[in-house]
Amino acid sequence: MTSARPPVHCLLVDDLEENLLALEALLRRDDIVLLKARSGEEALELLLRQDVALALLDVQMPGMDGFELAEFMRGNERTRHIPIIFLTAGTADAQRRFRGYEMGAVDFIQKPIEADILRSKVNVFFELYRQRQLVAAQRDELAEASAALREADRRKDEYLAVLAHELRNPLASLHAGVNLLHRKAGTPQAIPIQESMDRQIFHLARLVDDLLDVSRISVGKISLRTERLELATMLSLAIESSQAHIDAAGHSFSTDLPADPVWLEADLTRMAQVVSNLLINAAKYTPQGGRIALSAHEVGQSVEIIVRDNGLGIPAEMQHRIFDIFAQVAGHRDQAAGGLGIGLSLVRQLVELHAGSVSVESAGPGEGSSFIVRIPRVTAA
Ligand code: ADP
Questions:
Q1: Could you tell me which residues come within 8 angstroms of residue 339 by beta carbon, excluding any fewer than 6 positions away?
Q2: H or E segment and range at residue 45
Q3: 3-state secondary structure of 62
Q4: How deeply is 168 buried, as exposed, middle or buried, from its count of CB atoms within 10 A (0-12, 13-18, 19+)?
Q5: Element (H, E) at 86
């Protein structure tokens, strides 16, 4: 698999063209790019443009010699850590001259060069370079993962605060209701109190159900009860459970559905829950008297179900986040009616359990929204 790795760059510096060619011939490999410089100045220019894994420097060059070049490299933040192999004519004296710079990785090869020694030294440095790159990539991945964890943790804290608030409000009114009922039992005044308590209990039960669903899905505990069913059956069930919300807000509601039967292999209750969540959201996030449309059509081997409204819309920067749990558009809290930003994450998880996908389109605030669910269809009953 070596060839799949990105190539590493190696700098060769020698004033004699024939030496450069000889080094090139010795080191040529698919995963190495050899950069050649004929002087120290040319080498420094190349280093400004390109990161290199290793530099092979001829010590004796006219003008800036190999040691001076190394000194420049060590003095520059960008090139300080590049390992250097000096190619020397051969006395121990020359090696001693460089003692002052032995901080970084430095090695010496005597001329005439022995091919095996050169290759094995070069390989050691390349391997080190690869390892360093790997460690850096892993460090970046870890940093990303820990930032994501911190963000999830922050959202969980935020959510717990909202959840506590949301649960406390209906409980407080239920408590007050029970006290009142004690006093008003059997009188006509008891009826609206009971109705209000019913609504609060329904809201509480729904919050708790959604929370349970989300946590069951995230630990893989929801299993679909799939059956072969008609799209129209599922959609009527969804409409039935959302109609009251649509009517209560005085919206008009239209449908555009396939004339011929379309068959799905799906969990009736769960898919109806998906569509009705989208319809109820459309009703919630559209000002009184809006338009809501449900349409469906076949696209290749899938069916596309679209819930469109002409309501508040969703700002572009929120559209990729809207299916994350607890994500809510900042200005929509008043319309959320006690919702906690769980519904759409449930929608996405349920659709994905059906091997489908869900997306949103909105031209922005005030421009309405379309939610598009795509799930596989089956060819015959
Ligand atoms: P909830 O409605 O309980 O807040 P959801 O997960 O169903 O939670 O929706 C998340 C957020 O997405 C909502 O708070 C709202 O800001 C936005 N949203 C969902 N549906 C629509 C829609 N049809 N039009 C505009 N905004 C929407």
A1: 284, 328
A2: helix 40-49
A3: coil
A4: exposed
A5: strand 84-88
Tell which atom from ligand 1 comes closest to the C-alpha of 332.
16
Ligand 1 near 349 CB (within 6 A): no
Q: Say whether 304 sits in a helix, a strand or coil.
A: strand
User: In DSSP terms, which residues pair with 197 in a beta bridge?
Assistant: none
Ligand 1 centre to CA of 281 (Å) is 6
Question: Residue 264: which of 149, 117, 377 has the closest Cα?
Answer: 377
Work out the angle between the directed axes of helices 17-27 and 115-184 (0-180°, nearest 10).
60
Instruction: Check pocket membership of 203 for ligand 1, CB cut-off 6 A.
Output: no
Query: CA–CA separation, 38 vs 10, rounded Å?
Result: 14
- pTM score > 0.90 for this model? no
Q: For the chain, what's the residue count?
A: 381
Contact criterion met (CB below 8 Å) for 310 and 293? no
Residue 343 and residue 327: Cα distance in Å, rounded?
10
Q: For residue 61, what are its two tokens? A: 């060059």
DSSP H helix total and E strand total for the chain: 10, 12
Q: What is the pLDDT of residues 178-228, one digit of tens each?
A: 888 888 888 888 888 888 888 888 878 877 888 788 777 777 778 888 999
273: part of which helix (H) or strand (E)?
helix 268-284
Report the amino acid identity of residue 112.
Answer: P
Distance from the CA of 31 to the center of ligand 1, in angstroms? Answer: 51
pLDDT of 1 strictly over 50: no
Burial-class residue 256 by CB neighbours within 10 Å (0-12, 13-18, 19+). exposed
**134 vs 3, 7, 60, 131, CA distance in Å?**
16, 14, 35, 5
Give pLDDT tens digits for 146-172: 999 998 888 777 777 777 777 777 788
Percent of the chain with pLDDT over 70: 94
CA-nearest of 76, 77, 36, 80 to 58 is 36
CA distance 371 to 360: 5
Integer Cα distance of 292 and 281 in angstroms: 10
